[in-house]
Hints:
The chain is of the alpha/beta class. The chain has two domains: 18-105 and 205-248, Periplasmic binding protein-like II (D-Maltodextrin-Binding Protein, domain 2); 107-204, 3-Layer(aba) Sandwich (D-Maltodextrin-Binding Protein, domain 2). Helices cover 34% and strands 23% of the residues. Strands 1, 2, 3, 4, 5, 6, 7, 8, 9 and 10 form a ten-stranded mixed sheet that branches. α5 (144-148) links the parallel β6 and β7 (153-157). The N and C termini lie far apart (64 Å).
Amino acid sequence: MFRLLALLILCSLSAQATERIEVWTYHTSPPFANEQSTGLSEALVALLNEHPSNHARYFFVLSQLPRRRLDARLAENRPGVLLWATPTFFPPKLVARARWTSPLLCDTQDFVSPASHPFDYEGPASLYGQRLGGVLGHYYQTLQDDIDKGRIRREDVHSDLQNLHKLLSGRIDVALLPRSARYFYETTEIPPARLHVSDVPLYTFQRHILITSSLNPAATQFIQQLITDLPHSARWQGLLRRYGLQRMNAPCTTY
C-alpha cells in the first residue's frame, strides 16, 4: 500500500511539473500552415516539445488565431508565445512589454511576375497601370498611400497560391508574395522558371518568436536559449529543407 501511495504521489508531482504553454500563430497558409500536411508552425511546436533539453517540463500547445483575437491576447498580456512575429508589424503599445527571441527566418516581400512578362520594381510609381495582387488583410508599407488614392490598382484574394494562379493565368500583372511562400510553392506547385522576381523587394523582415512578459522567467529562458541554438540543430535545418526555406536562415545580411 505504501509503495502504491508513493507511486501515485510521484505521478501527481510529475504531472504538476509539466507546464502548459500556449503558442499562437495567425498565419493560415504555407509554409506555416498546411491543410494537406504538417505546416512549419506545427513542426516547430513538436520540436519544442520533443527537444532533449525540455525534459517534459513544458508542453507547448498550438492555436491558430485571427489577428483580432491575437491582438486581444497581447493586450491582456496573456502568458504565451507568438510564432513568426516581426516587431514592426505590431503597434508599439501592444508589444512594449514583450520579449523577442533571436530571429528564426529572414523573409522578404517580393514582387513576382510571369517570366514571359517580367516586372521590376522601381518605387511605387512603377506600379501605376499594373494590376497588383495582394492578400486580404495585409498592409503593404510604402504602397498604401498610393493604393488608398487609387494610383495603384490592388486586387485581393485569400491566399498566396490564389495570387500565383491569377498571375500565371494573366488576370493580374504582378503579385506581392512573401519569399517563404514562394520558396515553398516552387517546391510543390510552380516551377521557378515560370516566375520572375524583381531584384528590388518591397521590404525585408525577420521572423522571431514573441514571448509575453507574463510568461514565467524559466520558460522564457528555455525558449530564448533553444531558439538561439536552432541554427546548429540538425532537426531545424532538416525542417528548413523540407519546406524549401534553407536559403532563409536568419539574421538577414541586408536587414
